[in-house]
Amino acid sequence: MKQNGSHYGIYFWLTIVTFVVPFFVAYRAFEKIAPTTKPVPQPDASGVDHNLWDYLLKSYVENGLIDYEGIKRDYLFKIYLQQLGAANFDTLANDDEKLALHCNAYNAFVINGVINHRISDSVTDFSHNNLGFFDQKEHLLGNRTLSLNELEHQIIRPTYREPRIHMALVCAARSCPAIRAEAYMGDRVRKQLEDQARLFANNTRHVRLDPSGKRIQVNSILKWYGEDWKTAGGYLNWIAQRVESPLLKAKLLEAAEKKIEVSFLKYDWSLNGQGPHSSYQPQKSEAGSGSIPNE
């Protein structure tokens, strides 16, 4: 009887394991592909919850391309914009928290501008009241209405003097560094910026050696904002510290010493949207301007 019971016990548990394991494996696989649960807004001391922005980026950004239509439909985007509009920077503990908030706000405002102005091809094609996309004073941050250029050039750049922000602020163009599919957070924003810088330096769309081996080609951002890299020894040395290719590193250092030529890649201003034609096809929208949070 004991022997039969023993055998019965072994077969019983083998049967249970055989039945349960496939369900467990299937559950784990589904868990990895299942959509992230929408977060419940939990603002920080400033009144902003960056977890909302983190959720939106993880949900609507893929390979650096943005699903503008998806973000437009998501009510959490409107909530996040409302929070940015009323943000209180004075309550934040340090500059890193303020920097993270500014970076997130800039990128959210760019996306909101694309949506509200129904841009389908390029932000450079848009003009209103003789002002371009980046000069529209329509974005509400901390109860102050700003243009994108004011936010970047009058606040972010002079306040933080951090060249890596040029790898984080995304201007809705293909030649911009790819938008990061997560929100910037105060406790790790510098590490996130460094990761963005390394991704930029090792992407041939932004930095590459001409086939002749006698010329370095780099993103035009480095020409436009070259002065921001002066304290870092210039952008060529800055890039050289981050590239993985020994040959490219050597050539960058040669270029820094003016031993080989540097040229700037043509900037592709086409929209960084998802879709077969890489452009956002806007639907009819009732959304308001960036300066008036959507109801």
Summarize the structure.
This protein has 295 residues and is mainly alpha-helical. It contains 10 helices and 9 strands. It has a 3-stranded mixed sheet. A two-stranded antiparallel sheet has the order 1-2.
Write the layout of secondary structure elements.
Blueprint lengths: L1 H32 L16 H11 E2 L2 E2 L1 H6 L1 H11 L9 H22 L10 E2 L2 E2 L6 E3 L2 E3 L1 H13 L28 H13 L5 E3 L5 E4 L2 H4 L10 H6 L5 H11 L4 E4 L31
Q: Overview of this structure, please?
A:
- This protein has helices at 2-33, 50-60, 68-73, 75-85, 95-116, 148-160, 189-201, 221-224, 235-240, 246-256, and strands at 61-62, 65-66, 127-128, 131-132, 139-141, 144-146, 207-209, 215-218, 261-264.
- With 295 residues, the chain is mostly helical.
- The strands form four sheets. It has a three-stranded mixed β-sheet with strand order 7-8-9.
- Strand 5 (139-141) and strand 6 form a beta hairpin.
- The radius of gyration is 24 Å and the shape is globular.
Key features?
295 residues; mainly alpha; three-stranded mixed β-sheet; 44% helix; globular
Biggest sheet layout: 3 strands, mixed
State the low-pLDDT regions, or none: 23-35, 283-295
Computed over alpha carbons, the radius of gyration is 24 Å
Count the E strands. Answer: 9
**Class inferred from helices and paired strands:** mainly alpha
* Strand line-up in the sheet with most strands: 7-8-9
